[in-house]
Design brief:
Blueprint: H1 2-12, H2 16-26, H3 30-83, H4 87-166, H5 171-222
Helix pairs in contact: 1-3, 1-4, 2-4, 3-4, 4-5
Length: about 220
């Protein structure tokens, strides 16, 4: 369980800025796809761990409840034995009650530990699900940005070819090439505008992620 929590913590703390930079440099979304696969695998393991610990917690609660009932019954019996003057029976019942109370105390400690572990697992699952949602959104926006970049690269190659055509000395070819180039310039300008908008959206999301992390850290420090 400790190993699983360590892996989950590493995934939760993954740096989105670094992932975006890596994807842009490699002109590939592979880093995002790998992260998503790892998160989904660990989310499945977390779900199983939450169910397992939750089941154990219910079992402990049931056993603790049974012990409490037995202790209450013995406590009543001891009073009855004493009122009837049955000291030996009262002594035996008191000894048994003491053993049950010690066992119940041990169960109480186990319950506290199990409750804490159960809550930690549920919190980790929620945080990892939230991180996965953010990364998937980032992936979609980055994919659009990379597609725009590829489109601009293709446009640049096409314009170079048109420049070559415009130099062959044929006026008709030059006019056609100039018209195509004007359309490509307009498309390129539109792509740059869209790319700028996507850059702005990505910065906003990443900044929000940073702010959320800072507030979460402050809340933890304040015990909220």
């Amino acid at each position: 369980m400790a190993s699983l929590m360590k892996k989950v913590q590493t995934l939760i703390q993954a740096n989105l800025h670094a992932m975006v930079d890596s994807a842009l440099k490699a002109n590939s979304l592979a880093v995002f796809d790998q992260y998503v696969r790892e998160v989904e695998d660990n989310l499945e393991n977390l779900e199983d761990a939450v169910a397992t610990v939750g089941g154990e917690l219910k079992t402990l609660r049931r056993k603790k409840s049974d012990l409490d009932q037995r202790a209450a019954e013995l406590d009543r019996n001891i009073d009855i034995f004493l009122r009837e003057g049955k000291e030996d029976l009262a002594l035996a019942a008191q000894s048994k009650l003491n053993s049950i109370l010690r066992l119940a105390e041990n169960y109480e400690e186990m319950l506290d530990r199990q409750e804490t572990e159960f809550q930690n697992l549920k919190d980790a699952r929620l945080k990892l699900e939230a991180k996965l949602t953010t990364v998937k959104q980032e992936r979609e926006e980055l994919q659009a940005l990379l597609e725009l970049a590829r489109s601009k690269e293709l446009t640049a190659k096409t314009i170079k070819s048109l420049d070559d055509l415009m130099g062959v000395g044929d006026d008709d070819i030059s006019q056609v090439a100039e018209g195509i180039r004007a359309r490509l310039d307009k498309a390129s300008a539109r792509s740059e505008m869209l790319a700028g908008s996507l850059d702005s959206q990505m910065d906003e999301v990443l900044e929000k992620s940073t702010l959320d992390a800072q507030l979460a850290e402050r809340k933890a420090r304040l015990g909220l």
